[in-house]
Amino acid sequence: EDQVxxxxxxxxxxxxxxxxxxxxxxxxxxxxLFWYRQDPxxxxxxxxxxxxxxxxxxKERLKATLTKKESFLHITAPKPEDSATYLCAVQAGGNQxxxxxxTSLTVIP
Amino acid sequence: GAGVSQSxxxxxxxxxxxxxxxxxxxxxxxxxxxYRQSLGQGLEFLIYFQGNSAPDKSGLPSDRFSAERTxxxxxxxxxxxxxxxxxxxxxxxxxxxAGVGGTQYFGPGxxxxxx
Lengths: 109, 115
Hints:
The complex is a heterodimer.
Chain A: E1 3-7, E2 10-14, E3 19-26, E4 32-38, E5 45-50, E6 56-59, E7 62-66, E8 70-75, E9 84-91, E10 97-99, E11 103-108
Parallel strand pairs in A: 2-11
Antiparallel strand pairs in A: 1-3, 3-8, 4-5, 4-9, 6-7, 7-8, 9-10, 9-11
Chain B: E1 5-7, E2 10-13, E3 19-24, E4 31-37, E5 43-50, E6 53-56, E7 65-69, E8 75-79, E9 88-95, E10 105-106, E11 110-114
């Protein structure tokens, strides 16, 4: 069964304290893995797409990596404005998208 | 350019009433997706359109749910005889293509409350 699991459910960091969010997946025929940021009351905002194991992408303080079983979203020296829920999604062979339940990140000044 | 828009932003209805939710995708995007997001739950896929046709309706929870897309643009999600368990945020997304590389861009959602 296709499945996406994110951990931890919630994460509190001090400003400047780097950490990583995990997204593990089981899916047949992975076509892509996506990371989104969602602020309260808003729709998810696209961050990255990864297509194959070993691929990495960076944007400001965020870096996403992909292996055959999981993806990590590394946050370097986070700021309070990075506080949000981070969602991971995978696109399966049948063009289905499966989302995890997200990691709620709080960065404390 | 304009992003995905959805209306209304909030909808409160009574149990048993029908509701219509609207999605305006990004211009030129051929694929359109509907999701439901309940408190503490991940996004639940409902249906997607490629042009005006819906190749995959497997996510619709019951026959009270239906969706259509006209002119390859605007889509409407209709929920008939609403139930309290239908209360959720309904999100729409569009992408340039439906296949590999079809990154989805989301609208702000419609928050539906069924009393």
